[in-house]
């Protein structure tokens, strides 16, 4: 792409849009790392009634909200459409109807404003949230991305160069948290509620299975651990025996976290990485944060974690990822951008 200089002569101003799941979000970010505004309109209360995200309902609400969210973010940043240098939008992976609302909006705006459009991978965005939170952070580093749809271990070689080393073979970490929370009757979204309940329980009360797969594998599998919880609860209920939900939550969480920590630290050691970057919604989990801190300290690894507001879905992280793609010469996709429900990192 033939890059023009910044309109204000100082820094590139990116309008970023995120709508891959149930948050309609827009942000204004300058030079990738400085967030002028970060508006998130959450649909959690709407989907709560159904116990999970209903894709069609999510799309409709994105459509209703997106213009207002974009207007709000510009107003809060104190800028106008004419100030924008380029637009970044999540176009993969995610719920297809939800992604299409964001991408269609971004394409229309990029065309009308005659600025470049850059499609961003949602998980790259999650990793980039750490650049916003930590001004000193630079690649290379190892990264653990744990969200509702992904559990990924990646080697981040450069700002736009990623190598996936491990992925989940079944449930993502967040998905497993949400499903276990549901059977415990905790409500939606389950991850944060399970995290809270686990604080009152004993993580060693029930020895749920830790699944490490092959000795040298960086892949994850959480469905066996999740099924272990379901079997434990069914057994107790069938026999009419009492159980302590807080112990179940704490023991399940400990089993998942132990595997995430072991594989992340092993990746750093085997790849000679001295920095580990945590990302994704499950990065908000208090047990994961504490255990990673401990393990990284013991192994001389520097740990980077986003603040809670940048862990779950937001558009600031998309603005950051788009900036580095923009600097690396990404093609302008104003006329060509498509949305993809599945996509490689
Ligand atoms: O990254 P995210 O906002 O959306 C996706 O890209 O999937 O992640 C949402 C996931 C949900 O599964 C949610 O339950 C989980 O992150 N989550 C947590 C916590 N906060 C959010 N899981 C465990 N503990 C938490 N504190
Ligand atoms: Zn996400």
Care to count the β-strands? Answer: 10
Strand content: 15-25%
**What's the number of helices?**
11
Structural class: alpha/beta
The tally of domains stands at 2
Q: What is the distance, rounded to the nearest whole angstrom, between the alpha carbons of the first and last residues?
A: 22 Å
User: Can you tell me the CATH class of the largest domain?
Assistant: Alpha Beta
Main-sheet strand order equals 3-2-1-4-5
CATH superfamily of the largest domain: ATPase, nucleotide binding domain
CATH topology of the largest domain: Nucleotidyltransferase, domain 5
Rough outline: globular
Q: Please, what is the average pLDDT?
A: 96
Largest sheet: 5 strands, mixed
User: Which architecture of the largest domain per CATH?
Assistant: 2-Layer Sandwich
Helicity level: 40-55%
Low-confidence stretches at least 5 residues in length (pLDDT < 50)?
none
User: Which small compounds were modeled alongside the protein?
Assistant: 5'-O-[(R)-(carboxyoxy)(hydroxy)phosphoryl]adenosine, zinc ion
The string of secondary-structure elements, in order, is EEEHHEHEHEEEHHHHEHEHH
């Amino acid at each position: 792409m033939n890059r023009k200089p910044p309109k204000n002569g100082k820094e590139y101003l990116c309008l970023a849009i995120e709508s891959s799941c149930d948050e309609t979000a827009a942000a204004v970010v300058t030079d990738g790392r400085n967030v002028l505004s970060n508006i998130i309109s959450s649909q959690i209360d709407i989907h709560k009634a159904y116990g999970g995200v209903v894709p069609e309902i999510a799309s409709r609400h994105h459509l209703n909200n997106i213009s207002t969210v974009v207007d709000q973010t510009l107003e809060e940043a104190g800028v106008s459409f004419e100030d924008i240098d380029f637009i970044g939008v999540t176009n993969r992976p995610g719920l297809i109807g939800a992604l299409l609302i964001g991408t269609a909006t971004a394409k229309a705006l990029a065309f009308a404003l005659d600025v470049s459009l850059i499609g961003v991978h949602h998980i790259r965005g999650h990793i980039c949230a750490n650049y916003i939170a930590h001004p000193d952070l630079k690649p290379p580093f190892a990264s653990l991305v744990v969200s509702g749809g992904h559990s990924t271990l990646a080697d981040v070689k450069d700002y736009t160069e990623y190598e996936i080393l491990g992925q989940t073979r079944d449930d993502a970490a967040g998905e497993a948290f949400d499903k276990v929370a549901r059977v415990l009757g905790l409500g939606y979204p389950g991850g944060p509620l399970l995290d809270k309940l686990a604080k009152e329980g004993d993580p060693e009360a029930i020895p749920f299975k830790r699944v490490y797969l092959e000795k040298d594998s960086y892949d994850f599998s959480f469905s066996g651990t999740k099924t272990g919880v379901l079997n434990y609860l069914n057994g107790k209920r069938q026999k009419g025996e009492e159980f302590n939900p807080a112990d179940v939550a704490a023991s399940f969480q400990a089993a998942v976290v132990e595997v995430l920590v072991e594989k992340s630290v092993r990746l750093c050691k085997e790849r000679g990485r001295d920095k580990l970057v945590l990302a994704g919604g499950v990065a908000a989990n208090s047990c994961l944060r504490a255990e990673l801190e401990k393990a990284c300290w013991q192994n001389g690894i520097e740990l980077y974690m986003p603040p809670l507001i940048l862990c779950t879905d937001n558009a600031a992280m998309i603005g950051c990822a788009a900036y580095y793609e923009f600097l690396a010469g990404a093609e302008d996709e104003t006329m060509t951008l498509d949305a993809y429900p599945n996509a490689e990192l």
